[in-house]
Amino acid sequence: MVTRPDPDLLRQLPAPHPDEAPLPPPAAISGIRLLRGVPYAVPEGGRPLELDLWLPAGGPAPLVLYVHGGAWRRGRRDDLGMRTRDWDPGPFARLAAAGLAVACVDYRLSGEARFPAPLEDLRAALRWLTLRSPELGIDTGRTLVWGESAGGHLAALLALTRPDPPLAGAVVWYGPSDLTTPRGGYSPDSAETPEAALLGAAPAACPEPARAASPLAHVHAAAPPFFLAHGTEDTMVAPSHTEDLAAALRAAGVPVRLRLVPGADHGWYGAPDAEVSGIFAASREFAVRQLL
């Protein structure tokens, strides 16, 4: 005989919803509170999406929303790229030391869901951070998005597609800006590219989604200021992605800082350590100026 489960059992089985779940106890690092693995959303049929939070001491801190790279199909939320992995203190601790809270977010990868899923996840993270901001001591009314590579692409899209709350700026390192046009070794006709995996088909075979996933197509006069950086010898994402995005933003009247790094390949490969440190410092300075 089949019996009905106890209603109280059914209520208690699922983990608490991220909107209401208790925050984990923070670790303390040189006056910075660090919360790792905080769930912010649970997509239907998918894994819980988590974020790490670096929280400076003091009153409500402005926020850097960080988006990792990895060709939309891999990567770790706490990775700012290969040239910063051995830094001590690490890049996010350095941002927190400057008075900026940092949220390093998961998003659904291309093996899990198609575009616009990862962009929707960033919006969900921003919504959750706003909801829980009194507990966290952050001010999402002052938020800058920062991403590298595929994360730079998503960061630019978020900044250009009018999120709520609106963003104060965007830092984009060597991110694709146009999925519709052949550039370097990339062809929109190929179904074997990371871009095709993101969209679910060769970009040329789905022109509307490809355009929707192209930051260059979303430039408008009310966009926030951008800091764009790219290596001149990038063999994975052609520098013209960043140059064309900078030109379009300027034509629309949006403040832009463009930094092209001579001799640098993707991920700042081949750039001197001092150059990489300088790019980070300039990006941090831009974030501080936009947020504080």
UniProtKB/TrEMBL annotation:
PANTHER family: AB HYDROLASE SUPERFAMILY PROTEIN C4A8.06C, ALPHA_BETA HYDROLASE. InterPro entries: AB_hydrolase_fold, BD-FAE-like_dom, GDXG_lipolytic_enzyme. It comes from the Bacteria. Residues 51-249 form the BD-FAE-like domain. GO terms for molecular function: hydrolase activity. This is Alpha/beta hydrolase. The keyword Metal-binding does not apply. Keywords: Hydrolase. Residues 1-24 are annotated as: Disordered. SUPFAM superfamilies: alpha/beta-Hydrolases.
